[in-house]
Amino acid sequence: MLIALDKIFSDDPSPYVLVDRDLRITWANAAYLATTGRSAESIIGRIITDAFPAPPDSVPDQMLRMSLSRVLETGRIDHLPLIPYPITAPDGSVTERYWSATHTPIMDGEGRVEYILQNTNDVTEIYRESNTLGAPGDNAKVIRRAEAVAKENLALGAAVNFVRSAFDQAPSFMVVLKGRDLTFQIVNESYLQLVGRRDLIGKTLREGLPELEGQGFYELLEQVYNSGEAVTRRGAEVRLRPTPEGPEEPRFVDFIFSPMKDPDGTPNGIFVEGHDVTRQKLAEAELIATRERFRTMAQSMPNHVWTATPEGVIDWVNDRIYAYTGVAEGQLYDGQWIDVVHPDDAEEGGAVWAAAVESTSLYQTEFRIRSADGSYRWHIVRAVPLRDASGAVERWIGTNTDIEDRKTAESALAQLNATLEERVEQRNRELEALHATLRQSQKMEAIGNLAGGIAHDFNNLLQTITGSLQLALRGLEPDSPVRPRLDQAMKAVGRGATLASQLLSFGRRQPLAPKVINLSRLLRDADHIVRSALGEAVEVETIVAGGLWNTCVDPANVESAILNLAINARDAMNGQGRLTIEIGNAYLDDAYARAHVDVTPGQYVMLAVTDTGCGMPPEIIEKVFEPFFTTKAEGRGTGLGMSMVYGFVKQSGGHVKIYSEVGNGTSIKIYLPRSLEAEDTARPAQSGPMTGGNETILLVEDDEDVRATAAGLLADLGYTVLQARDADRAMTIVESGARIDLLFTDVVMPGRMTSRQMAEKARLMMPKLAVLFTSGYTQNSIVHGGRLDAGVQLLSKPYTQEALARKLREVLAKPAAVVEQPVASPPPPPAAPLAGLRVLVCEDDVIIRMNLAEVLQEAGCSVLEAGNGKKALALLETGPVDAVLIDLGLPDMSGMDLAATMRDRLPDLPVVFATGQTHVAGIEAMGRAQVLTKPFGDDALIETLLAVLGRTA
């Protein structure tokens, strides 16, 4: 094509340029390049308005764009008799020039505009001549006329564009059909959304929408064209094909066909305008269907059902109401329903209904309704508003439910409860307090397990750091500049060890060394420490009851507990006040034990610390014993002191209770079990310089870093060190016949053999072998009931070289008798009462569920855990279950419904209901079912399971 243009126009003196549909210049002849002062390379490929820019939205810019747009839309030639358009010269200067332009469309094979050929002539001189003084020539007159026409065309084009934009953006669909054959001339966006994206312009109605054949629209349009009278339809159904290959789809439209006429009244087309109301029609149909379904369902219900308008006017009642009241159909509408209400209830019932209608809120009341025989029965009357998408009330749906029998029972029950109400209320308060105590205890147990589990690895890390620091210090000169930094690091390790010890105490994992002591003597020995910590502004009073019983506890932990409580009291009193430490005998009876699930009735030695400080509210008391909880300012406490006290007391079999009121001080009472044994005589602590030895020590430690530092400390003390990383390798060394004086082993040991088993086996081969255990976290191998087994020597991690040296000399001087009976024939463990059973526990409280699972696992069960009924049913499908333990109050269903569903699948499944109630209705008919009343202990849980399974302990 470009070759042809070159042949035709290359030598033509008139300027020509060719642009594509994007207005990109694709060709220009020599005259055009000369007139515009451009080269072909500088403009070919550029948008014409970019190659020859005019100020955006200026008159020249608008005139050029409108003319080119008209050619693309209509496919017809468009003329610009006069257009002012600036040209930028090669030197950058801008010259205002005037042109006369013709835009000719060039079509493709399908009749679509593919290119626009612009022929433009520079008429700048003629235009300027027309504006000079004197009589204008013919050319000047033409130019002036062209300028006027151009201005009119520009204004007309802007108006057409505005109308076209408004037409296209209108929410209703609009179409202009021209001529008797009804050819599409204008179609807006809404119409295309209705009929599908089609190329309609220039096509007749029958060509553009052939699917309208047989639907009456062609005939209706011809009637409008011939008669000249408009036609309107609402909700008319039309079947359209939105996609060329797709099926016809029904649409509903409101429309008007308006005839268009020439000035002389001759018809020349039809204007179509309307709205797509398909969604509205479908919604109305669905509403009608829904209303019919509702009424069908309401007629089958045993209750009275009625509906009312948004204004509260009853407009429908079901047959049950007519049958009950005996009135004729239609006599309960509007306000007539009040006639069947008891006269004493009518006024209040009507007032409540009016208030509900006004506030559009739930309607609920109770009144008596007259039956067909003239008697009245109580009904509970409810109604809810149904709202539309905007929130407005569309309708009221109401029901009347007969509650006469319930009212009778309530009256009788009210008389019966007149004397019982106070006792029930008191019992409920007791149970609520008991449940709160149980939840708190279970929470503290769970947190304690977590805290204790952290300590092992933490203490191993501290031990590695401690040993390495001490070995580094021993190799330094006293005046070395590095020594102060290493000393500071050792102090930090000490603080870390204290932190780990407190975590172990709270987690009840601290290996205690209890002695039978008299707290009065211990308090007398610790008195100066307490007074020193409190300061002179705090007055301390000590009260010791006569005939004080002994108790078996770890003395060091008692001292720490007293000191912690005293320091907390001092801070609560802002450093001045009165502190009372009281020791006496106490008896916690069965009533107290029932109110505190963690208390065993019996005799105790009571230690009370009372201050005159600010006191604590209940919500603070609940959290006092939690690790890291503190009310002190940041940096003034770790929050572990009270948790350490709590863990030590619980591990010792005791009980702790806080009494406090805001503004009236606090009293913390510790109850430690009484011991009937004689008081132990205290052994003086070791003193003197640290010494080593020349014995041979077998060091067994699985942590390589800890083993390396421990070996270094031992070698530095003069000992010969043999090393093993587990029990099997240690026994290889023992069996080799090497001389070994002491076995120094970590308690927690990987592999098939525990450290205790290894020690016993080694002592069988070497009866005089001394054994020293070490650990940052003790398990049941050497600790039972929170106390070290008799004869066992333990050095807790992290330890210093001095502590290690003194403990080694102590153990080597008097070896402990570790072996109590041969390893080859250990006593068989007692059989777990529920060994081998698979039990499903369904309890939504995670802490209670964890506690139940732990107890059952210790009893030998395999436990499946579920937090709701749905998960429990899913677990039931995973394999056979011997029994289920179900909480009655589950989040997604009742425990009784869950048990019934399970029994449908497994009719003989044993079921235990865990509940705060003493009786569960309907349980007698179930068979193989038991009630376990909360709170319950471990023994009660095991016994109930055995009972429902038909076993004996």
Automatic annotation (TrEMBL):
GO terms of molecular function: ATP binding; phosphorelay sensor kinase activity
EC number(s) given by UniProt: 2.7.13.3
PROSITE patterns for this protein: HIS_KIN, PAC, PAS, RESPONSE_REGULATORY
Ranges for domain PAC: 234-289, 363-415
Domain PAS: from-to ranges: 290-348
Pfam families: HATPase_c, PAS_3, PAS_4, Response_reg
Domain Response regulatory stretches: 696-812, 838-949
Domain of life: Bacteria
Annotated SMART domains: HATPase_c, HisKA, PAC, PAS, REC
Domain Histidine kinase: 453-676
Modified residues (4-aspartylphosphate): 746, 887
Catalysis performed (reactions): ATP + protein L-histidine = ADP + protein N-phospho-L-histidine
Alphabetical UniProt keywords: ATP-binding, Coiled coil, Kinase, Nucleotide-binding, Phosphoprotein, Transferase, Two-component regulatory system
Coiled-coil region list: 406-441
Alphabetical list of PANTHER family matching this protein: C4-DICARBOXYLATE TRANSPORT SENSOR PROTEIN DCTB (PTHR43065:SF46), SENSOR HISTIDINE KINASE (PTHR43065)
Designated name of the protein: histidine kinase
Organism name: Cereibacter changlensis JA139
